[in-house]
Design goal:
The structure is a homodimer. Chain A is of the alpha+beta class. Among the domains of chain A are: about 120 residues, Uridine Diphospho-n-acetylenolpyruvylglucosamine Reductase, domain 3 (2-Layer Sandwich), CATH 3.30.465.10; about 200 residues, Alpha-Beta Plaits (2-Layer Sandwich), CATH 3.30.70.2190. Chain A is about 35% helix and about 20% strand. Chain A contains 14 helices and 18 strands. In chain A, the strands form 5 sheets. Chain A has a 5-stranded antiparallel sheet. In chain A, a hairpin with a 4-residue loop joins strand 17 and strand 18. Chain A is globular and about 70 Å long. The first copy, chain A, starts with 7 loop residues before the first helix and ends in a 12-residue tail after the last helix. Chains A and B meet through strand 9, helix 6, strand 11, helix 7 and helix 13 of A and strand 9, helix 6, strand 11, helix 7 and helix 13 of B.
Chain lengths: ~475, ~475
């Protein structure tokens, strides 16, 4: 498929169909991404206010074979939001579609436009004494449409699922410009193919999400948070199983922490308080959310774990401030990583039972490649590790940049061998297109290509992403 | 698309590629369905033992343009398992693919072949001290592949979700005969389009599920069950909200019962014990599953509900036998319905907040059509009602059969007006194809047709179902 530039004539024609100032030029902010790996050469910026305006824009693009790059908060980590190359696309930002359309506390449903910032959705839920549980580092700027398009994860997936699991219905503009009015608030609706889940996670290649009906939950009244020291990842897994035996679905976060991450924080962020004087090699942050007495359940878990020899030390937060301090440590680990500068980062997932063997084998194999430092941390409850590799102390990532692909290939091969995934929560974007081609099941990949061709025959939607 | 008969030559060619006795003739058991509305004229029965054999069969059918009708337990309620008409299809039964391939208790995952009976999957989970929460009336004969293909619901959806939500990965044969090896046990895997959820709920029209990786849960140690009398559906909804405030996700079932259903049970099944001497017009069966003290939580809910005037009477089960007696009442309501004989049955869902207004308006409108008896019951926690309409006492359904479509049209129009669905958990099958054409969003319906044409260009997979 050959795509055409969004020419001045095309733009003039588009402007004539839309309210004033809907169309403009894309500033550099729309042409960069956080990893600093992809850059757009320019483009037309469209900032529609309604699904109807999105439809007008997409219809025009489809008919003129002009590329459309959907743009949410710009926080994606795999380059799905920036299209490099010489062809001038329409960058369609959802930022003006930022209304919470309705909250239904009795139904535990909230309807938000795609441009709502995630933190605003959380706040709107809280104002109705409800919880919208999607929570991740970029929540202050990520927009819910992007969260859905990338099927975002974060720290509460163990209990509440990914963005996919929190979505009941969608309003979306398909690649032919037609509006799908699918903002259902139904919990059950078995009437044909699941278009909702096809749009969620498609990273803007099958259409543009313009609004979503989202699931809310009762707010747990009692929250208990602790960091517990474990001797190794296997003990951490056994602690997870025991925690769920005792507290069931109340286990809402179970985050693996590694000594290397704490040392990075100590080195680069001296104001962040560490819970232990001697940095432990492995520890986990556990959080329970219950109707009442979460601390008592946490004490029970801690006591039983010590007795079974799974846990050697721990800190249970005794106040909101202490709870926030424990989370602050967890949340500053990526900040410290960035300050140190990784040679290669990996957002991988594994069958839960394979995590200990993977960590052990990967460590040994990376050591053979060079004197790297490894920070392996993340959402252990979901089998999702952020496996990041850093240069030796005193050296810079640049010195090791030539080895980046070799390191990543090693990790991805190992992950694949264990039945894991090369992208747990970040998506494919443009960064992992080659990995998808390499590791995806061939029958599934062929089906994906058929679906893309069927729904977007002109290939206008976010070309170069995913496929 | 013209489809061809499975001719003797075709069968001979197929037999040559498969082990002996894989192919035979379909007995009448494979040509009927529980509603008694659809009948097959005959067909070739294929009973493969592996995904490879399924692949061989589907490839042959695809190349010869012979229809394939996937067959699980045959318990579906919308006719998806039986193809009427003169063309002789291959009926592909999964009954021999009935192995539990593996259980991973630490990971809370079980891998089952599609032909496993649902109750066997539940038992295998229980043997590992885990819960597979999908539970429905036909669990003794329904097979898990069919449960997934129809995205089955049942009594635990409120807490654990539909079949869709319980599935981590699939092995499936696509319409071109290629095997998709997607039996992942991963909780997070953001690597492209969600083919899994496209296959789930497609009712065998996009391929054949041959095995699934399923989610298990810790078994709640303490289960509390009660039936509480409420003054009306609105009170029932408020009771639901309050129960979830107190017990969070522990509320695992919340079933609406109607006096008419209890009277039907009294009339047709005198051995089933009713919990109240005076049959209440509205009541709910509430179940909590907790780590401990579920009865105490249930007492707390009951006490608070009485104080707020939501509940006027109730029975809390004090033993396993009492608990089973309460469930037995709930489970015998469909049996009693069948004995009475409905004029029209509806498996509908509504936004939770719209349930009271719907029940009130529907009752008034049905009364205008005739002196019908209405039994409105079901999974209120999910907004899913079974809204069944019966002839007046002493008369037979046959006398009212001419009004069946008029009654259903009235109900579906009303449901649609409230933003509800004409099929909450049973699917579309062949029975609701016209309703789908009438009520589905046009953009979505067009996308569904594109996807069907892209993945099954010869239209061999379960023709006449869904689309």
């Amino acid at each position: 498929m050959t795509l055409n530039d969004a020419t001045p004539d095309f733009v003039a024609c588009l402007e004539a169909q839309l309210p004033e100032k809907t169309i403009g030029n894309a500033s550099s902010a729309y042409l960069e991404e956080p990893r600093g790996r992809y850059f757009g050469q320019g483009g037309v910026l469209a900032r529609p206010r309604s699904a109807e305006e999105v439809s007008t824009i997409v219809k025009a693009c489809n008919s003129a074979h002009v590329a459309v790059v959907p743009y949410g908060g710009g926080t994606g980590l795999v380059g799905a939001q920036v299209m490099p190359g010489d062809v001038r696309p329409v960058i369609l930002s959802l930022e003006r579609m930022n209304t919470i359309r309705a909250v239904y506390p009795l139904e535990n449903v909230l309807v938000a436009e795609a441009g709502c910032v995630l933190a605003e959705v959380q706040s709107a839920a809280q104002e109705s004494d409800r919880l919208f549980p999607l929570s991740l580092g970029a929540e202050g700027s990520a927009r819910i449409g992007g969260n859905l398009s990338t099927n975002a994860g974060g720290v509460n997936v163990l209990r509440y699922g990914n963005a996919r699991d929190l979505c009941l219905g969608l309003e979306a503009v398909l690649p032919n410009g037609e509006i799908w009015h699918g903002l259902t608030r139904l919990r059950k609706d078995n009437t044909g193919y699941d278009l909702r889940n096809l749009m969620v996670g498609a990273e803007g290649t099958l259409g543009i999400i313009t609004a979503a009906a989202l699931k809310l939950y009762p707010r747990p009244r009692s929250i208990g948070t602790a960091v517990m020291v474990v001797s190794n990842p296997q003990s951490a897994l056994e602690l997870l199983a025991m925690s769920r035996e005792i507290a069931g679905e109340s286990v809402s976060a179970f985050e693996l922490l590694h000594g290397q991450g704490m040392r990075f924080v100590q080195e680069t962020l001296p104001d962040v308080r560490l819970p232990f004087t001697d940095i432990p090699e492995w520890s986990v942050l556990v959080e329970l959310g219950m109707a009442q007495a979460a601390d008592a359940a946490l004490e029970e878990i801690f006591g039983a774990a010590v007795e079974m020899g799974l846990v050697s030390d721990g800190v249970i937060a005794r106040s909101d401030a202490q709870r926030q301090a424990l989370w602050s440590l967890r949340e500053h680990i990526p900040v410290a990583n960035k300050a140190i500068g990784s040679v290669a980062s990996h957002d991988i997932s594994l069958p839960l039972g394979a995590v200990p063997a993977f960590i052990s084998e990967a460590g040994a194999k990376v050591a053979q490649l060079g004197p790297y430092r490894i920070n392996c941390f993340g959402h252990l409850g979901d089998g999702n590790l952020h496996y990041n590799i850093f240069p030796p102390k005193g050296e810079t990532r640049e010195a090791y940049d030539t080895q980046r692909h070799q390191v990543s290939d090693l990790i991805y091969e190992l992950v694949h061998g264990f039945g894991g995934s090369f992208s747990a929560e970040h998506g494919v974007g443009r960064m992992k297109v080659a990995a998808l081609q390499k590791y995806a099941d061939p029958a599934r990949l062929a089906a994906m290509k058929s679906i893309k061709a069927a729904l977007d025959p002109n290939g206008i939607m976010n070309p170069g992403a995913v496929l």
